[in-house]
Design a protein that fits this description.
Length: 263
């Protein structure tokens, strides 16, 4: 049975606006009950009220700052205890303008807390239950910048590279035991993230509308893809890249250093 065929509750982080709120709309229209998480309770309640009215699904909200461990614990508890949650959508994330030179250690730590620690802890909270139930899905919103250190996006790119690797590793370990893991790699998408990180989205070329991004990501979800890159025209380019990486693996365990390093 596909994930979609089972109408389970979806817990979405960062659901007060942008990509998360759009996923909430799409999953509600597919008949899923929702649990929406973000810091701004009024905005969450606005999204929830509209979706309850338009679709009739049950929508709960959890007001939480996922960089704060007490708030994170509330969401972890719900993920552990609520057996109806069958899809965890780790979407909450922030960008930071500029590279390593201009960002402070505190700003970098904050980005790690949201983009890495929260996503990891929430997944860890749900995995034992998914394994016990023999099913469940985790969708992690990464970014194409995970593949592009050349863009000089500092910690933001590095956090998204973590999300990509983490999702692939989860799939390798848990995929055969009923846990579906998808990493979605959007490119520039028209949301508030740009303004929040001090950039004008209108200065960027090739910006996707958020509805198109989420609908494409859901096509990948319905196909049970592990990696979904909505803007990439030729999927073979990703396959070639991934195959080249895998071809290296058997050569990496050696008793001796490669010839070029032998003094
Ligand atoms: N837009 C793009 O161009 C783009 C491209 C690639 C990847 N992405 C990724 O897509 C995801 C969603 O981004 P978006 O563009 O939709 O951004 P967005 O419009 O800024 O929305 C971010 C969401 O996360 C929530 N959030 C932010 N900080 C939070 C915190 N500390 N605790 C809990 N919730 C928090 C925000 O709500 P509150 O303010 O109410 O907390 C909001 O609901 C992110 O992971 C982002 O990195 C975006």
């Amino acid at each position: 049975m596909s994930i979609e065929a089972k109408i389970t509750t979806v817990l979405i982080t960062g659901a007060s606006t942008g990509i998360g709120a759009t996923y909430a709309d799409r999953f509600a229209k597919r008949g899923h009950n929702l649990i929406l998480v973000a810091r701004n309770g009024a905005r969450l309640e606005e999204v929830a009220a509209r979706l309850r009215k338009e679709t009739g699904v049950t929508v709960d909200i959890i007001v939480a700052d996922l960089t704060k461990s007490a708030d994170l614990a509330k969401v972890e508890t719900r993920l552990r205890d609520d057996k109806d949650i069958g899809i965890l959508l780790n979407n909450a994330g922030a960008a930071a303008h500029g590279g390593f030179e201009t960002s402070t250690a505190d700003a970098q730590e904050n980005l790690i807390a949201l983009n890495i620690t929260a996503l990891t802890r929430l997944s860890a909270a749900v995995i034992p239950r998914y394994l016990a139930q023999g099913q469940g899905a985790i969708v992690n919103i990464a970014s194409v910048v995970a593949l592009a250190p050349e863009l000089q996006l500092g910690m933001y790119g590095a956090t998204k590279a973590y999300v990509l690797h983490y999702s692939q590793a989860l799939h390798v370990e848990l995929g055969a035991r009923g846990v579906y893991v998808q990493a979605v790699l959007p490119a520039a998408t028209r949301t508030e993230i740009w303004e929040r990180s001090g950039r004008d989205v209108n200065e960027i070329n090739g910006v996707m509308e958020v509805g198109e991004l989420v609908d494409a990501a859901l096509v990948g979800f319905d196909r049970a893809e592990v990696i979904t890159i909505p803007p990439l025209p030729d999927a073979a380019q990703w396959e070639t890249f991934n195959t080249a990486r895998q071809a290296m693996l058997p050569n990496l365990a050696q008793e001796h250093a490669a010839k070029r390093y032998q003094a």
